[in-house]
């Protein structure tokens, strides 16, 4: 029996929420991206997992694809900004600003990003790039 892309995605998310390591989940989300290359959500998840696993170059590529597929996703923009910070690239401020604009329009998205950042720190406590982006997004 072949798993559908949707069931693979749901299972991957459940495993992530249960605390499974990024390293173990990267192959799952790579397969999802291979099978559903236009799934922004899959690319966003893959980028996040790469970032958690200290692999900023593949994270950058995955985040770029996620943003290209869905420019209105603040998590994809957040991932891209973090990957750009970690790979020493310029131009990340536009992605932080775009994420901020999207969060202003939607309090639900703002809370999702806040939760995502908390999750990131729970898995990678000394994550400097995430701390910088958090400051930029939530400095009030």
List keywords for this structure.
single chain; Serine Threonine Protein Phosphatase 5, Tetratricopeptide repeat; 140 residues; globular; mainly alpha
What would your notes on this structure say?
By secondary structure, the chain is mostly helical. Helix content is 77%, strand content 0%. It has a single domain, classed as Serine Threonine Protein Phosphatase 5, Tetratricopeptide repeat. The protein starts with a helix and ends with a helix.
Mean pLDDT value? 93
End-to-end gap: 51 Å
Radius of gyration: 14 Å
Task: Provide the helix percentage.
Answer: over 70%
Q: Can you summarize the main beta sheet? A: none
Strand/helix succession: HHHHHHHH
What would you say the CATH architecture is?
Alpha Horseshoe
List the total number of helices.
Answer: 8
The CATH first-level class comes to: Mainly Alpha
Brief synopsis:
Helices cover 77% and strands 0% of the residues. It has 140 residues and is mostly helical. Helix 4 packs antiparallel against helix 5.
Spell out the blueprint of helices and strands.
Elements: H1 5-17, H2 22-35, H3 40-52, H4 56-69, H5 74-86, H6 93-105, H7 107-123, H8 128-138
Helix pairs in contact: 1-2, 2-3, 3-4, 3-5, 4-5, 5-6, 6-7
């Amino acid at each position: 029996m072949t798993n559908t892309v949707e069931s693979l995605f749901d299972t991957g998310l459940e495993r992530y929420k249960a605390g499974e390591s990024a390293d173990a989940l990267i192959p799952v989300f790579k397969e999802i991206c291979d099978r559903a290359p236009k799934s922004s959500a899959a690319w966003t998840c893959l980028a996040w997992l790469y970032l958690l696993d200290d692999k900023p170059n593949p994270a950058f590529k995955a985040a770029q694809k996620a943003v290209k597929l869905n420019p209105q996703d603040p998590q994809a923009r957040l991932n891209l900004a973090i990957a750009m910070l970690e790979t020493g690239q310029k131009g990340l401020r536009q992605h932080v600003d775009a994420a901020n604009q999207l969060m202003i329009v939607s309090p639900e998205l703002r809370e999702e990003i806040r939760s995502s950042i908390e999750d990131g720190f729970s898995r990678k406590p000394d994550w400097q790039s995430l701390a910088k982006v958090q400051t930029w997004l939530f400095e009030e």
